[in-house]
Amino acid sequence: MKLQTFIGLRPELKPVEKPLRYVMYVRKSSEDAEAQAKSLPDQIAACREYARAKGLILVGEPIQESKSAKKSGNRPLFSQMLRDLEKGVYDGILAWHPDRLSRNSLEAGMIVDMVDNEIIKDLKFPTFEFTNDSSGKLTLNMMFALSKQYSEHLSESVQRGVDSNLAQGKSSGVPKWGYNRDEVTGLYEPDENFSYIRRGWEMLLEGATRNEILDYWRAHDVHRMTKLSRRNKHPRRMEVSMHMTTTMFHDPFYYGILVQAGQAVDLRVICPNFKPMVTEEEYNKAQEMSQDRSRRKVVLYDGETPDKLFLPFRHLIVCKECGRNMVISRSRGSKGTHYLNAYCQNKECTRSPRGVRIGEILNQVYDMLDRIEFTEENYNEFVKNMKAYVDTKLDELIVEKRSLNGLKSHKERNIDELASQYSALGKDTPDVVKTKLRKQIEALQNEVINIDNQLRKINAQIIDPTSLKLTQEKFLNLLNSASSKMRAGDPIEKDILARKLFLNLEIDNQKRVSFRWREPFNLLSERCNSGKNASGGRRGT
C-alpha cells in the first residue's frame, strides 16, 4: 500500500500538458455601417505581436473574412473554423476582439457552448482578457451581448440618418448626371454637365433617338470622375452609357422628385434653390414619346421567310471593344439562307470583323446554361441577399410609377383636347371626321385603362414587397430549365428568356461572349454545382 502511494506520487508520472495550438481569425465587415472597423492588416499585426509576447503557437495562416457578423450563417470561413476546432485541428482562437467572432446571439452561444464542452480550450484577445472560468465566461457573454446591441444600434442610427437626410432633400450614393451635391449642405446643384444633359432632354422631346443623344453627349465629352473614398482609392472616368441614358429619361428626379430607400420627396417643395432640369409637363411628354417609340414595329428577320421579320436581342448585345450596342441585321448566305447578325456600326471601333452571327452567340449561351445547375443551397444564399435587391427594386417601382403617372396625365390631357374638338364640331361636320375623333378618344381611353392596370400591379408590389421575391420552385425551374427552353424556343421566346436572365451580352474581338446577369440573379454566389461563375457571368465561353 505504501509502495503504491509512493509510486502514485512520483512526479515523472504526471501527464505532460501539450501547448495549445491557436488559429488567428480576423474579420472586417464591408457590407454595413461596421465597415469602419479596424482593418484586417492592423488586426493581424496586433494579434501577431500579442502572440509573440504571450508565447502562443499559431497554426496556419490567419483566417481573414470580410463579412458582417450581424446574422448567423453569413460567414463560410468562420463556420469552417468551428468545424476544424471540433475535429481537433486547433485548440483555441486568437482574435483582435470578441466582436470579431460574433455580433449575433446564435454564433455567440455556439462559441460559449464549445468553450463549456472544452472543444475550444482557450480564447485570446489583445484587447480583452479572457479567463476560462465561470466569471470569464460571464464576461465573454456580456461582451457578445454588447457587440450585438452596438451593431443593432449602429444600423438604426444609420437608417435614421438616411431618413432624416432624405426629408431634407439629401441622398446617398452617386449624384445624378448633370448635378453635384454641395459639400457643406449636401443638396443638389447643377454641375458642368448640366446644360449638355438638359440639351439631351430637349433632343428627346424633338424626336431624336437615344443613340443620337448619346453621340451628342460623347461629342461634348460628358463624363465625370469618381471621388476618392475609403473604398475608391483611384478616381475613375465614367461616361454616359445607353443603359444610363434610358434610366435617366425615366427618372422623375429631373423634374424634382427624389426617390430613395423606398421613399419619394419633392425637392421643389423642400429645397427652394433646387433647379429642375425639365418641367413636369416635359417629363410627362418624354414618357409618352418613349412609349410611342417602344410600340414601333421593328423590322427584323425571324429566319423563316423574307416577309416575316422579327429582331431578337435588340439593345441586349454590346461590342466589348467600344461599349456600343450592336445593331441586329439580316444577311443572305451563298445558298440563299437568311441569317441574323450583330453588327457594330461605330466607325471609330477597332473590332474586326464588324459582325458576328447570332447563331454563334446563341451556341455560347447554350453552352453556359448547360454547365450551370442551381441547387436549393444556391437559392438559400439568393434569399439572404434579397433584402438589398428588394430595396433597390422598390426604388425602381416608385420611379416606374411616377413615369406611368406622367404618361397617364399626358394621355388624359390629349383626351380632353380631342373631346373639346369633338364638342365644337358642327351639325354639318362629315360623319367620317366625327368617327375618326371618336376612335382616337376611345383608343386613348383604353390606353389609360391599361396604364391603370399596370399601376395597380405596381402599387400591390410596393405595399407587399415580398411579392418581388421568387419562390424556390420558380427560381430553380427558371434557371435549371433555361438551357432547354432557350434551345427549343422561337426567336421571340429566346428574346424574352434572354432578357429575363441577362443585363447584356458583351462580344469581344474573338467573338467570345461575356455574360452580365440581370438582378436578382447577379446576387447568386459564385459557387454552384458546375463550379462556374453564376453571379457575374462566365467570361469567354
Summarize the structure.
With 541 residues, this protein is an alpha/beta fold. It contains 18 helices and 17 strands.
Describe this structure in words.
- The protein has 541 residues and is of the alpha/beta class.
- Helices cover 47% and strands 13% of the residues.
- It has 3 domains: 20-164, Rossmann fold, CATH 3.40.50.1390; 179-295, Putative Large Serine Recombinase, Chain B, Domain 2 (Hect, E3 ligase catalytic domain fold); 354-541, no CATH class.
- The protein has helices spanning 2-8, 40-54, 76-87, 98-101, 105-116, 134-167, 194-205, 210-219, 242-248, 267-270, 280-295, 358-371, 376-384, 386-423, 431-463, 472-480, 482-488, 491-501; strands spanning 21-27, 57-58, 63-65, 92-95, 122-124, 179-181, 188-190, 223-225, 237-239, 257-260, 263-266, 317-319, 327-332, 338-343, 355-357, 502-507, 513-517.
- Strands 1, 2, 3, 4 and 5 form a 5-stranded parallel beta sheet that branches. The protein has a 3-stranded mixed beta sheet with strand order 12-16-17. A 3-stranded antiparallel beta sheet has the order 13-14-15.
- A hairpin with a 5-residue loop joins strand 16 (502-507) and strand 17 (513-517).
- Helix 7 (194-205) packs antiparallel against helix 8 (210-219), helix 12 runs antiparallel to helix 17 and helix 14 (386-423) packs antiparallel against helix 15.
- It starts with a helix and ends in a 24-residue tail after the last strand.
- The model is unreliable at 1-9, 31-36, 294-308 and 525-541 (pLDDT under 50).
